[in-house]
Every structure is written in structure tokens, then in C-alpha cells.
Amino acid sequence: MSSSPSAAPPRAARPPFRILLTILHLAALGLFGWAVVSVLLMLFAVGIGTAILLGIGLLFLGALVYALFGTAWFETERVRGLYDLPVPTLTLQRPSAPGFGAYLRAMAWQSIDGRMWRGVASFVVATTLGTTLLVCVQSLVWSAIAVVVALGGGDPAQDPTFGTLFGLLPGLGGPLLGALNAIVAAAAAIGLALLHRVITVAIARAGARTQQLARQVQTTARQREGAVRAADVERTRIERDLHDGVQPRLVSVGMTLGLAQQQIDDDPEGAKALISEAHTSTKAAITELRQLARGIHASVLDDRGLDAALSALAGRSHIPVVLDVRLDGRCSREAETAVYFAIAESLTNAAKHSRASECRVVVRLREGGLLWARVEDNGVGGARVLPGGGLDGITNRIEAAGGSVRIDSPQGGPTTLEVSVPCAS
């Protein structure tokens, strides 16, 4: 979206205003920042010094961790608000389980949180720059006052405050030197503000980048775990279907053909009947193998896309399916496969367990590149995610593709399953 001409002046005026705001921030930190640093050092010293006295020092060290976190949180929010940085808010480590031991572990993890320490370091740097800035502001104010006094007919050289500066050059040389000193002090203040921006922004972005990488690692680990679990569930399903369906049928075909072979000379008609029975069983086994292969991979999905694959799936369903698919284009093979099998497993579960008379399937391509699908049946509800079950397999497949799953199945129904997968996963 193009900006209007009237919006340009405020944007042009923002950098000087931000420099002024930065100078005010540094001045405030120069006045009060060292008090915060002193409190932190006092808590550390008292905590270490009394740690051997029945653990009293642990209370101070715990307070130190909270104080460090508060300082880092304040610094992160200050820098983010001052420079409009897209950095996440600093969050406190929470105990993973109830109990004092979990609380201590959370405190220990918080005490080594790199982003917290970066925030504290940024606060100390800003406080140091603020102290230097106060010296520059003091010099600027003194020089400006002295120049005004000199131009007004006074003699700053006789003043103990300005005498050193204006006694160096007599006449108009003193005011010129004062003006030059004021310019240098103002330039130094602006330079400190710019230096503050460079340092604190670099620290904040480094912390945000580290946190982003940690989240990416966690997401990748979760996707890998989901992929491994999905493959294990799928392998178990294939083994179960082969063991309970195709294998017994093929064994029966072999036994039937063996009986026919024994009777072919003495009872040709009986042998023909056995061969016909074996032929029928063989065709049924082939059908089961095709269905099993289709459960492993739907070739129509690659050939004609998700819409056609879901149409074929709805046509084979044991319960009526209302299909509503609106897609402008194709997504990645991984995304389409994950959504297809989530819908297929949902329809299978509905046919087996829900006692539903109808299912409705809605598929959309949403903003942000998300392939979204919802399956709803009018069954009895009460569906739960059980290890190794159908819903567990759906969850693992979707998480492996980088997506999310939401299941809503109250007692009495209806059951609704929603999945969202990045289209380019």
C-alpha cells in the first residue's frame, strides 16, 4: 500500500524526536540506573555471604534472580518501545511441575537465561552512557549560560564556575570558546544517543534471534517426534491390517486350493467349487491389498490434486459425506498428504465409532498460506486421543507437517476436527 504525501512529514520528523527521546531515556538512567545496579550487587553480596547460614542466602539469591529478570524485562520493553523493534517480550521461567524442587529448577534455568543477562548488560551499558550524557549536558548548560552572561556584558572569567573556561582567551575569544564547547557537548550527547541505539538494538536483536532459533529447534524437534510417531502408528496399522485381513485370507486360499488338488481326481465337481471359492477369496484379498496401498499413498492425490482425491474418498465412505472444497491452487505434497489422511482417518473413525448418519468436510486455503480443513459428524461424540489410535495418528501427521490440530467432541456430539497445515510445508 502506498503512503499518502501527507504522511511523509511525520515520518521525516521521527528521527530527531527519537534522538531527543533517547537522550531523555539516557538522562533518566544516568540519574537512577546506578541505584538499581547497586541493589543488584547488594543482593548478590548478601546472598553469597549468608548462603552458609542455614540457607538464608538462598532467599536473597532468589530475590536477585527476580530483580535481574525485572531489570532485563524493563530494558527489553524500553528498547522495544523506543525503537519499535519486533522482539518478543521477556518471559519468566515457570515450574514444569508442582513442588519446591520444580520451583528451584525453574529458578536455576532462569538464572542462566542468556536473554535475561543480555537485557541486564544492555541496562548497564545504557546507564553508563547516561552518566556520560549527564556530564555532556552539564557542560552544555554551563557553556550556554556563560556565553549568555558574556554577551550580556558580564565577566564569566571572574566566576569560579566559568573562570577556567573563559580565562583561557580574553575578549570575544572566551564566548567563542564557550560556544564551541557547547557545540561539542551537544554533538557528544547526540553521539551517545546514536551509540546507545547501535549497542542496545544489537543486543536486543541478538537475544531475539537466539530465542527465535531456540523456538525453531523446539518446533523441528516436535515435528520430528510427530513424524516418527506417525510412521510408527502407520507401520502398526499396516501390520495389523496384513495380519488380521490379507494374511488369513491368503492362508485360506492356499488351504482351499490344497483341498481342491486332493479332490480333483475323485470329486471334480467339488474341486471346481473349491477353486471357485479360492478365486473369490483371491479377488477379495486383491481388493484389500488395494485398499491397504491406497491407505499408504493415494496416487490420485499426486495426479489430480486434493479436491479429486477427497471426492474419491467421499465416494467410498460408508456414511454420506457433504464435501465443500474451495482451493485456488495446489499446495505442497506434504501438506496435501497430511490433510488428506487426516480427513480419511476422521471419516473412518466416524464410520466405526460415532454412529453418525452424515459427515461434512470443508477445505479452504486461508490467508497466510494455511491449508485448513474441518471434518464434522453428527454422531454421539466422546472421541478421545489415545496412544496408537486414529486421532493420535492424525495429530502426529499434522504436527510432522508443521501444522496444528483442534478436536472438539463433547458427549452427545457432534465431533469436529480442524487441521491447519502450512501450504508450503
Automatic annotation (TrEMBL):
<keyword id="KW-0067">ATP-binding</keyword>
<keyword id="KW-0597">Phosphoprotein</keyword>
<dbReference type="InterPro" id="IPR036890">
    <property type="entry name" value="HATPase_C_sf"/>
</dbReference>
<feature type="transmembrane region" description="Helical">
    <location>
        <begin position="20"/>
        <end position="45"/>
    </location>
</feature>
<dbReference type="InterPro" id="IPR011712">
    <property type="entry name" value="Sig_transdc_His_kin_sub3_dim/P"/>
</dbReference>
<dbReference type="GO" id="GO:0046983">
    <property type="term" value="F:protein dimerization activity"/>
</dbReference>
<keyword id="KW-0418">Kinase</keyword>
<dbReference type="GO" id="GO:0005524">
    <property type="term" value="F:ATP binding"/>
</dbReference>
<keyword id="KW-0812">Transmembrane</keyword>
<dbReference type="GO" id="GO:0000155">
    <property type="term" value="F:phosphorelay sensor kinase activity"/>
</dbReference>
<feature type="transmembrane region" description="Helical">
    <location>
        <begin position="120"/>
        <end position="152"/>
    </location>
</feature>
<feature type="transmembrane region" description="Helical">
    <location>
        <begin position="172"/>
        <end position="195"/>
    </location>
</feature>
<protein>
    <recommendedName>
        <fullName>histidine kinase</fullName>
        <ecNumber>2.7.13.3</ecNumber>
    </recommendedName>
</protein>
<keyword id="KW-0808">Transferase</keyword>
<dbReference type="Pfam" id="PF07730">
    <property type="entry name" value="HisKA_3"/>
</dbReference>
<feature type="domain" description="Histidine kinase/HSP90-like ATPase">
    <location>
        <begin position="334"/>
        <end position="425"/>
    </location>
</feature>
<dbReference type="Pfam" id="PF02518">
    <property type="entry name" value="HATPase_c"/>
</dbReference>
<keyword id="KW-1133">Transmembrane helix</keyword>
<dbReference type="InterPro" id="IPR050482">
    <property type="entry name" value="Sensor_HK_TwoCompSys"/>
</dbReference>
<dbReference type="GO" id="GO:0016020">
    <property type="term" value="C:membrane"/>
</dbReference>
<feature type="transmembrane region" description="Helical">
    <location>
        <begin position="51"/>
        <end position="74"/>
    </location>
</feature>
<keyword id="KW-0547">Nucleotide-binding</keyword>
<dbReference type="InterPro" id="IPR003594">
    <property type="entry name" value="HATPase_dom"/>
</dbReference>
<keyword id="KW-0902">Two-component regulatory system</keyword>
<keyword id="KW-0472">Membrane</keyword>
